[in-house]
């Protein structure tokens, strides 16, 4: 089922005061012009390196593992660019949650919309394969403005934040589905619904296999997309939002890929290998905008040492 979004007085408990206060401050800040938010966000992100040193080390380690051909100067520049993007992402979340449809529509363009409409005409549901980019929240809102779509997500442990984020994410008539509810997702796909799913994180050992990801030969990779596609018969397409910095035209591009051919196959290992290659392609559209702060290579085959210390 879709996530419920009921308010209760329990959410006003003092333990949630900082949550409500922080979201209110974010609401006020995102009333500023977009150029101001971009300026402030980049500087806030760079400043954060003094307070989230553990995350900075994870970003750097992931980049070193994925791009061993880059020298330390190039890696350090990517780290700083990634932190800048992280700061902008905070305000993009506020934009996604609080901006009007009219204000948002002035910011983006859509590339490949015919790929979605062609797949949608089959009335077999659509699996939209995404990545955890910094603009994730904004991408979800923009997708909802362009076509009807639901999304898989992990419920927040903070009940107040769960209420706030679910209510905000459903502004564009989207439904949020717990990522563990595979049966419901298949049912909705068979009804012709579109569902967004990002399979690019470390889900541990359950429901995964080891596949190459960039230069890391064995990376825990979800079988979820292949299984959903096989059970539902839904076509699969990639979709990515990119922030167009230092470019003319719109500030964001929503890029929808062509329907995957011969997917899924009869070989789940080949499918997960292929999925990681697709994810790599989407990341490389703007590698500095990807969520490198996630411990993507945390799960290792038995006997292998951890990449993180």
From TrEMBL:
It is an enzyme of class 2 (transferase). One of its GO terms (biological process) is lipopolysaccharide biosynthetic process. GO terms for cellular component: plasma membrane. Pathway: Bacterial outer membrane biogenesis; lipopolysaccharide biosynthesis; Glycolipid biosynthesis; KDO(2)-lipid A biosynthesis; KDO(2)-lipid A from CMP-3-deoxy-D-manno-octulosonate and lipid IV(A): step 3/4. GO terms for molecular function: Kdo2-lipid IVA acyltransferase activity. Its EC number is 2.3.1.241. It is a single-pass membrane protein. The keyword Nucleotide-binding does not apply. The chain crosses the membrane at residues 20-40. Pfam families: Lip_A_acyltrans. Catalyzes the transfer of an acyl chain from an acyl-[acyl-carrier-protein] (ACP) to a Kdo(2)-lipid IV(A) to form a Kdo(2)-(acyl)-lipid IV(A). This is Lipid A biosynthesis acyltransferase. The lineage of its organism: Bacteria, Pseudomonadati, Pseudomonadota, Gammaproteobacteria, Enterobacterales.
